């Protein structure tokens, strides 16, 4: 009886999905772009979380699994404009710079979808999770905290962390997985110092403690939350009553409560200039009668800063270090300049290294928005009407690998960003737009923060040591292929070593 009911229910669900797929397919045909049909997609919660485990589908014979990569969240393909048709919502993919600017630039018409960005409201609404008229209120306060005058904190902390890191690992081979962990630790500590006034030593917390949430300090609790965001995703989707929820859910809930207590304490003590600016900015907006961030919104934004700033910057650093190790001539070129400055306004060669790294290996290969109304757009020379409630994804991978925009598009060549003005090296003005930090009003407010951190840490490493790469390094880098994380199997076959330079 039970099995029969289950079979009937499954048949109903399956028929519903097939019918929805057909309806969406017919709608997509009207757009006139190439179509890719996916039976499952990132809009299915379980597939979003576990779909990445089924890479075997891609290897099915006769191209039967060719849909697989398009079904995942953060797909990474170099195709230009097309429509992904699924049983849920259609997703139009664009890669032309003008189209991308149009969508990302008009935040009132193209909103961040709640399905994706709702997660960034883990502790309360944040600049990244809100849309429409709500967003400027958050962003205004955030912009004050990210002012230039706080960047010396970032510089100071990144130099200290890089120096301590070097002392701990010099002479040892670090495979790419260990390199990633080291950079993550560095980047997490810099944020803790600059944003929250917590001065930490490099390598102070062990990864296992963070994983198990054993130590309940501010840092470990924050890291536990960051690493377990998929649990939050499942919790919000499943909404199980507490009696039925698995242990992991309860642990996550407890960590969230602990983190709120830590944030409350930080807000009371206002241990950093950054935090003080954030709170003061919110208060002065209140005085000016323009609305204020509530306490929950302040918590939401503080958590968001760590979510948005840690992995992104650490990913840029780890990739650049590996690339510098694999390209000793470019490493030497960057080192020549690194020995000549002591503050964050000067470096241009390392800025070029960062730009070029993010162009090819940007942490966000695509960015998705949803159309609130019917929208007209010219794609590939054709006028297209995109229906309301359609996902549109900016394919940043395709834009940054476009041979029509970039000469030798797939080569990592930081020098492409340089020019000489009156015999002084500078970043070239007339380059195609680099969209790694996004574009338009909702671009990344942490851009300068990440640049200062990157330059401070890498210049310290370059001046004090040679970064040597193992023989498998270039091969491993080829498999990174613009992904936010490369596959562990390739991470472990290659390594780098910091070898101290003679003074
Ligand atoms: C290399 C490092 C970084 C990269 C590549 C990067 C990239 C991005 C991108 C692409 C977005 C737009 C996301 C979207 O619209 O879906 C974004 C937004 C954001 N980033 Fe970054 N980011 C970096 C570092 C940072 C840092 C260090 C912080 C904070 C300390 C930060 C804070 C934020 C915030 C708060 C937003 C949301 C802005 C809004 O919606 O108005 N980012 N970032």
Automatic annotation (TrEMBL):
Q: Please name the Pfam families in this protein's record.
A: p450
Q: Which InterPro entries match?
A: Cyt_P450, Cyt_P450_CS, Cyt_P450_E_grp-I, Cyt_P450_sf, Cytochrome_P450_monoxygenase
Name the coiled-coil region(s).
162-189
Q: Which GO terms describe its molecular function?
A: heme binding; iron ion binding; monooxygenase activity; oxidoreductase activity, acting on paired donors, with incorporation or reduction of molecular oxygen
Transferase is among the record's keywords? no
Q: Where does heme bind?
A: 444
Question: Keyword annotations for this protein?
Answer: Coiled coil, Heme, Iron, Metal-binding, Monooxygenase, Oxidoreductase
- Cofactor(s) named in the record: heme
Family stated for the protein in its record? Belongs to the cytochrome P450 family.
Q: What is this protein called?
A: Cytochrome P450
Question: Which species is the source of this protein?
Answer: Lithohypha guttulata
């Amino acid at each position: 009886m039970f099995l029969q009911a289950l079979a009937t229910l499954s048949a109903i669900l399956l028929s519903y999905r097939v019918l929805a797929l057909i309806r969406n397919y017919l709608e997509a045909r009207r757009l006139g772009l190439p179509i890719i049909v996916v039976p499952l997609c990132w809009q299915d919660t379980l597939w979003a979380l576990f779909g990445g485990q089924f890479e075997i589908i891609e290897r099915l014979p006769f191209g039967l699994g060719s849909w697989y990569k398009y079904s995942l969240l953060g797909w990474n393909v170099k195709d230009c404009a097309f429509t992904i048709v699924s049983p849920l919502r259609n997703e139009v993919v664009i890669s032309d710079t003008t189209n991308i600017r149009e969508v990302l630039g008009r935040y009132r018409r193209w909103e961040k979808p709640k399905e994706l960005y709702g997660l960034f409201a883990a502790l309360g609404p944040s600049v990244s999770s809100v849309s429409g008229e709500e967003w400027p209120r958050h962003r205004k306060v955030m912009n004050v905290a990210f002012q230039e005058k706080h960047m010396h904190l970032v510089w100071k902390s990144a130099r200290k962390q890089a120096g301590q890191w070097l002392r701990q690992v010099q002479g040892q081979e670090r495979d790419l997985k260990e390199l990633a962990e080291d950079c993550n630790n560095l980047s997490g500590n810099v944020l803790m110092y600059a944003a929250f006034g917590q001065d930490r030593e490099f390598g102070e917390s062990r990864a296992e403690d963070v994983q198990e949430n054993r130590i309940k300090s501010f840092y470990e609790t924050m890291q536990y939350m960051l690493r377990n965001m998929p649990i939050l995703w499942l919790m919000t989707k499943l909404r199980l009553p507490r009696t039925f929820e698995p242990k992991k859910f309860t642990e996550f809930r407890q960590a969230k409560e602990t983190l709120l207590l830590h944030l409350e304490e930080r807000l009371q003590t206002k241990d950093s200039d950054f935090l003080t600016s954030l709170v003061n900015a919110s208060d002065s907006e209140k005085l000016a009668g323009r609305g204020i961030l509530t306490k929950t919104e302040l918590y939401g934004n503080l958590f968001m800063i760590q979510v948005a700033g840690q992995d992104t910057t650490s990913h840029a650093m780890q990739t650049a270090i590996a690339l510098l190790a694999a390209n000793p001539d470019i490493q030497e070129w960057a080192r020549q300049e690194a020995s000549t400055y002591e503050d964050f306004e000067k470096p241009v060669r390392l800025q070029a290294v960062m730009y070029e790294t993010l162009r090819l290996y940007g942490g966000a290969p695509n960015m998705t928005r949803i159309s609130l109304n019917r929208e007209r757009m010219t794609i590939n020379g054709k006028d297209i009407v995109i229906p309301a409630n359609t996902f549109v994804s900016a394919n940043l991978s395709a834009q940054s690998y476009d041979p029509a925009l970039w000469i030798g598009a797939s080569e990592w060549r930081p020098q492409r960003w340089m020019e000489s003005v009156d015999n002084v090296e500078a970043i070239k003005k007339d380059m195609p737009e680099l969209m790694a930090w996004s574009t338009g009003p909702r671009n990344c407010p942490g851009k300068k923060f990440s640049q200062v951190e990157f330059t401070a840490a890498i210049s310290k490493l370059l001046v004090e040591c040679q970064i040597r790469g193992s023989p498998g390094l270039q091969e491993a880098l080829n498999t990174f292929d613009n992904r936010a994380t490369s596959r562990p199997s390739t991470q472990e076959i290659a390594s780098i070593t910091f070898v101290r330079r003679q003074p």
